[in-house]
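> forwarded from #structure-qc
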């Protein structure tokens, strides 16, 4: 695996400030520094946008290369058939991450257009979900069929 592409969607630029009781008090940029220290031999390429089209453009850009993509589409998870179609159209595997457990959230968050298009999904693990997704891709490239992890 050449690198991991991390794509965050709407409002995730506000991590650390937005609803810290749900999403935590650490910004994604702070956490990304931690991830880079944990996986020093794996380039992590990070993008964030509040715009659906930019997310689709990045999926298309990286979607035919030997990378893995970690996607947290935020609220677009529940509305974007276009992102689901983009995931289906590409060959690069996509892992879905959600900081909170969507099954315990509002009723409108129960519809998820992306899970069935992704090779792996992790919810409710906070920012650690990104490291779990990285571990999934590392195991995937080594031919392992599962990743074991425990919540702290």
């Amino acid at each position: 695996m050449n690198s991991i592409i991390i794509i965050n969607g709407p409002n995730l630029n506000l991590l650390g400030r937005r609803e810290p009781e749900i999403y935590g008090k650490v910004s994604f940029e702070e956490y990304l520094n931690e991830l880079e220290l944990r996986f020093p031999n794996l380039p992590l390429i990070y993008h964030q946008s509040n715009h659906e089209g930019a997310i689709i453009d990045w999926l298309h850009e990286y979607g035919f290369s030997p990378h893995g993509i970690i996607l947290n589409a935020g609220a677009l998870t529940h509305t974007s058939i276009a992102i689901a179609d983009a995931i289906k159209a590409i060959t690069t595997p996509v892992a879905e991450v959600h900081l909170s457990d969507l099954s315990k959230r509002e009723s409108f968050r129960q519809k998820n257009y992306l899970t069935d298009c992704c090779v792996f999904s992790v919810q409710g693990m906070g920012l650690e979900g990104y490291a779990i997704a990285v571990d999934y891709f590392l195991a995937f490239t080594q031919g392992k069929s599962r990743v074991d992890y425990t919540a702290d």
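QC bot note: Strands lie at 4-8, 44-48, 68-72, 94-98, 120-123. Residues 106 and 117 are 22 Å apart (CA to CA).
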